[in-house]
Structures are given as C-alpha cells and as structure tokens.
Amino acid sequence: MYNILETQVFGIIVTILFFNLGIFLQKKTKNPLMNPLLIAIIGIIIFLNITKIPYESFKIGADSINFFLGPVTVVLAVPLYKQFDLFKKHLLEIVIGIGCGVFSSFFSIKLIGMVTNANISIINSLIPKSITTPMGLSLTNTINGVEAVTVVAIIFTGILGAIIAPLVFKVGKINHPVAKGIALGTSAHALGTTKALEMGEVEGAMSGLSIGISGILTVVLIPIILNLV
C-alpha cells in the first residue's frame, strides 16, 4: 500500500478523480460556486486528513501536474492566433486595459497592506496574485515574498474571478467579448481564461493574450516600482 502512495501515479489519480467530481457537481447544480478546482482542493484536503495520508506522498504526483502549468499557458496562444486580426484592430484598447489592470492590482494590494499594517513579506507575497503560478513564484522570490502565500493568493484570485465574472459583467453591462477577455485574463489569469473560453473563442483568445502581457509587465515593472517607492 505504502509503495503505491510513494509513486507519482497516486497523486495524479487523486487529483484527476476530485477534479472530475467537481466537473460533475458543476454540471449537475449549474452553481458557479461549484468550481471544479475549488471542489478538488477541498476534496483532496478532506481526503488526506481522513485517510491520514502524508501530504508529501500526494505531492509527488501533484508536482508532475504542476510541471505542465507552463506549457499549458503557452498553448493558450492558439486561440489568439486565430483571432489575431481582432487583436490588431483593438491593440490600443487592449494595451491600456491590461496596463490599468496590472497597476490597479499592485496599488490595491499596497493600499490594503498599509491600511491593515501587514508585514511587508505578506504584502509582497500577495502582489503576484493575478498572474500565473510560474511567473508569480518567480516574482515573489525576487521581491522576498513567501511562496506558499503567493500560491494560495493566486489560486484564490483565479477561482474568485471565475465565479464572480458573469455577475460583474451583468451588473456592469459589459457585453463586448474583447473587454470580457481582457478583464478575465488580467485579473484571474489561467482560471479566468477557462471561464473566458466557456463564454466564447474571442473572450478566450483575449484572455490568453492578457495572461502573457500582464504577467510580463508585472514581473518586469513591479520590482522597479518597489525600488522607487
């Protein structure tokens, strides 16, 4: 039994099972709170606690899945390629939208940190919350953040963005597919992009584009800004 727990297969199978359980519950309930990733996270935590299986045993396989985060992000360029003419048509709006999203994310975290008098390492850990995990971890190491806090912040931001996006678009009367895609990709990275792809190919393409541009802007500019302020 313990030999099985110490293999990559165990972590991969457990992750796939709980993620598919999340998909099943989402389709059955049609409830946005039944996000497959959220269900998988909660389910795995409960499962490991009940069975007393060490997290390290699960992590062996989970790390194999984590390895594919980078390649999967690159694959999101395919929808963008198909919608490249639309990208050129709305280039200025796209650049301004992504730029505003990056800076509003940064300054909101700094403001919240100042109001709550949070430790600087925690503030720095939350700054990469809206970019993909590989980029976020790279940035948090550069600005002396805490990796574990950054990972939690990135996951929470992505799940929350995917859940509330339809409501925000409805209340704000945001109907343009480019605007939806830019908003989701810039604020909720890859998880937001999965929701954008559900909305349409244009939304997915613009969201995938936003992940790359917002990630690059954040990783390059934030350390410079932190050194100046």
Element-by-element helix/strand order? HHHHHHHHHHHHH
Taking all residues together, what is the mean pLDDT? 84
Shape: globular
Runs in which pLDDT lies below 50 for 5 or more consecutive residues are none
Task: Report the total helices.
Answer: 13
* Overall SS class: mainly alpha
Distance between the termini: 55 Å
> How many runs of DSSP E, i.e. beta strands?
0
CA-atom Rg in angstroms: 18 Å
Biggest sheet details: none
Helix fraction, binned, reads: over 70%
Strand content: under 5%
Please write out the topology:
Elements: H1 2-5, H2 8-29, H3 36-51, H4 55-66, H5 69-75, H6 77-82, H7 84-89, H8 91-116, H9 120-126, H10 133-142, H11 147-171, H12 177-199, H13 201-228
Helix pairs in contact: 2-3, 2-4, 8-12, 8-13, 10-11, 10-13, 11-12, 12-13
Your description of this structure?
- The protein is an all-alpha fold.
- It has 13 helices and no strands.
- It has helices at residues 2-5, 8-29, 36-51, 55-66, 69-75, 77-82, 84-89, 91-116, 120-126, 133-142, 147-171, 177-199, 201-228.
- Helix 8 (91-116) crosses helix 13.
- It is globular and about 55 Å long.
- The model has no long low-confidence stretch (mean pLDDT 84).
Q: What's the gist of this structure?
A:
The chain is an all-alpha fold and 229 residues long.
